[in-house]
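Notes from the pairing session

We agreed to fold both candidates in a single pass and log them together. This is the raw record for the first candidate, unedited. Please don't reformat it; downstream parsing expects exactly this layout.

Candidate A
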Amino acid sequence: MNLPASILSTIAICAVVFSAVLFQPVPLSAAETVVQPEKPAAQYPDVHILAGITKQVPMTEINSLWQEFYAQTGLHELVSNKQPSIYVLYQDISEGFDNARITIGYDVRDLKSTIETQPVPRGSYQTLLPAGKYSHEELYGWSDLDYSKGTEAILEQHKVDPSGQVISTSLLVLYR
C-alpha cells in the first residue's frame, strides 16, 4: 500500500468512527430534561351524598353555621364510623365570593341512618390543598383558587379523630 492510499484509508476510518460517536443516542441522565410545572391532579371525591345542615349564608357567618352543626346532637349520634370525615360543601357561590349555599355534614355511608341529604356535584375536582394541617387563614384564604374560572363547588374534607379533633384537612374545587 502506498502513502496516498494509506492516508485516504485513515481519513475514511476516522470519519466513520467520528460519525458513529457523533450520532449515537444520548443517555437519559445526560440529556437535558424539560420540567413541566405540575398541574394539580384531578380527583373524584369519594363522598357522593352528605347528610347534615345546609343553608344559604354569607361567608362571614361560616362560624355560626359550624356552631349550628355541632349543636345537631341527633346527627352526631347517627355516626357509625369511629373516625368519620366532616365535609363542607360550598355551592351557588356568589360572584364576589361573599355568599354561598353551604352544607356541613357527614358522608351518608358513615351514618347508621340518614336524614336530609345533599348530593355532591360530580366532576373532576382539582386539589387546592392536599391533606394536611393548615391555619385558618391558609384554609379559608383560597389563594390558589382560579377566580377567572366559574366555580361549581368547593369541597373541604376534615378528617377527625374519635374525640372530634381535626387530624387533617384537604380542599378541592370543581370548576365549571
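Candidate B (folded immediately after A)
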Amino acid sequence: MTERRDVKFAPSDINSQTGVFSGYGAVFGNLDSHADIIMHGAFKASLAEWRARGRLPKMMLMHGSNGNPFTGDDLPIGVFHTMREDAKGLFVEGRLLAIETDYGRRILSLMKGGALDGLSIGFRVKRSSPGRGTTKRWLEEIDLKEVSLVDDPSNDLARVSTVKESAFAASMDDAYAKMQAALRSLSAAEAAPSPDAELGKLAAQLRSYTR
C-alpha cells in the first residue's frame, strides 16, 4: 500500500520566470500527524535505485487522481533535478513545466499565494520499528514513489522553502528607464559625460548580479 507524508514549504522565493522552487519532501526525526517518525537514511537506498535508472520520482499535483479524483489526470506537473538527503531531511529542487499556459500559471499563482504550500511524498515502507508512547512507527527504509505539491500537508515542517523569483531582475527595465530620465534631466542643468553610456554600464553591472 502506498502511503503519504506531507511537509509545508514557504512560497516566499519562487522564480516566476523559470518555475524553479525547492523545499523538503520529508523531515527527519519529526513526529507527523500519522504518529510516524522518518529516520535519517530512510531514503538512501531508494534514491540510489532512482539514480541507477537515470531519473528521479515524478512531480505530481495532489498525488494525481489517486490522491484527489478532481485533479483530472495523472500527468506530472514538472520535473525534479535535485533530490538528496541532508541533515534536515529529504531536500528536493525542481521546476514547474508549462508555466506559460493557463494551467501552469494557476499552479504557480497558488504556490506564490501560499494556497499550495506543501510537499507530500508517496511511498511504501520497506523497514520500520514499532514506536513508543505517541510514536507509532520509526520508518527506517522507504521506497519513494513520487513527490507532490499539496495544499494541506501532514507535517508542517515539510513545505516548499523557496520558489525563486528575481524581482530585481524583473523590474530592471523599469528601473533603467527611470534612471535614464533622471540623468537626462540632470544633464540639462550641468555638463554630464554621456548619460546613456554611463547608465548602460551601470545597468549591465546590475544585471550581472541577477544571473
